[in-house]
Every structure is written in structure tokens, then in C-alpha cells.
Amino acid sequence: MFPLSLLNAATDNQILIELKNGFCYNGLLVNCDKFMNVNLKDVTLTSKNGQEFWKLNSCYIRGATIKYFQVEPELADRDSAISVHPTSHTAA
Amino acid sequence: MAAELGKLIDHRVMVLTNEGRTIVGDLAGLDQSINLILRDSVERVWSSDKGMELVPSGGLSMLRGDSVAAVCELNADADAAMDWEAVKADAIPRLKP
């Protein structure tokens, strides 16, 4: 399973993304690209200290700012996650 | 180089992140940038005054490669034989750039 294939398989699903600055975005994955840039909708944003919250209709996150993301475990079994090979590219 | 790590797929690994976190999980996949997919991962939180605590991270997660400092193969038998909850240790500091 390739990480970017897993991300692509996660479109239209809930995803939790923590950025390098500690902020946590929880929403529906609308789109993503080979640089791991993502577009989310119906997002709940939580600050690093867990004290502040925002609701965002949509947001765009630059891939390089991501620390990690979490998806539903069932996505690992999807064919689209397992069998897609990444195209070669240089990091943005 | 990622081919070497490919040998660890479906093995239990410990990942050291740039922030000094130790995360143990099953390596489900990786790529050339060392972005890692971990299944059933658990973070091991160390402190000098109380024993190790476990913080589960969710069933399926992906760790971005630029946050990864090291990926280590975990010896399941040796790991199971240790009483980790009794171990006190200083937290690993954040990696300096």
C-alpha cells in the first residue's frame, strides 16, 4: 500500500490531519494531489492546546505542513488503496 | 534506500519522530519519501516520574516522511518480555534542525 494511494482512496471520507504546528483538522476529504496537498470540507479545526475550536466550510492544506493523518481502518482493504502505483515526481 | 525499509512491511516497527515521539505500529506501506502507513499504532509516552503510558493513535494512520527520524524493527519477543509500565525515562527531546 502506498501512502498517496491510501490518501486517494480516502476521498469522500472523514480524515483527521495534524499539522506540524500542532493544529488538528477533522473533515471530509474532497481532493488531494501527489504533493499531499488536500482540500477538506465541513472541517472542525482544533488548536494545539485543545482549547480553541473553529468550524470551517472548506479549507486547503499544503502537503508539506502535514505531520500525520488518520483515516478509517476499513480503507486499507479498498482496492484503490492497494493497487495504485505512484507516478514518479520531485517533491514540491 | 526505501527498498531496505520495504523488508519491514507487515512487521511491527517503532518510529522515532522529529518531535521525539516513539510510535509503535504495523508497517502497512511506505514510499520513496519515507511517508509511512501504520496500522494499530500506539504512542509510547515516557516520563521520569511515572511509568510508560500508551496513547493509541487510531486504526490506520499515515506519518509524513519529513517528520520521521528513524524506523526500527521491533523484536516482538523481547518487547513482550519487558515490563514497560514500570520503566521511567526522560522524554526524548525534539530534534534540532
Characterization of this structure:
- The complex is a heterodimer of chains A (92) and B (97).
- Chain A has 92 residues and is mainly β.
- In chain A, 12% of the residues lie in helices and 42% in strands.
- Chain A has a five-stranded antiparallel beta sheet, with no helix packed on it.
- The mean pLDDT of chain A is 89.
- With 97 residues, chain B is mainly beta.
- Chain B has one domain: Roll (SH3 type barrels).
- Chain B is built from two helices and six strands; from the N terminus they run H-E-E-E-E-E-E-H.
- In chain B, strands 1, 2, 3, 4, 5 and 6 form a six-stranded antiparallel beta sheet that branches.
- In chain B, a hairpin with a 4-residue loop joins strand 1 and strand 2.
- The model of chain B has no long low-confidence stretch (mean pLDDT 92).
- Chains A and B meet through helix 1 and strand 5 of A and strand 2, strand 3 and strand 5 of B.
- Strand 5 of chain A pairs antiparallel with strand 5 of chain B.
| The CATH class of chain B | Mainly Beta
**Annotation, overall tally of beta strands of chain A:** 5
Radius of gyration of chain A: 13 Å
Write down the domain tally of chain B.
1
The biggest sheet of chain B amounts to: 6 strands, antiparallel
Structural class of chain B: mainly beta
The number of helical segments of chain B is 2
CATH architecture heading of chain B:
Roll
What is the strand content of chain B?
35-45%
Largest sheet of chain A: 5 strands, antiparallel
- Examine the coordinates and then state which fold CATH places here, giving the name of the CATH topology of chain B: SH3 type barrels
Rg of chain B, Cα atoms, Å: 13 Å
Which protein chains make the most extensive interface, counting residues with beta carbons within 8 Å of the other chain's beta carbons? A-B, 24 and 19 residues
Oligomer: heterodimer
What share of residues are in beta strands of chain A? Answer: 35-45%
How many distinct helices of chain A?
2
Q: What class, by secondary structure content of chain A?
A: mainly beta
Tell me the number of strands of chain B: 6
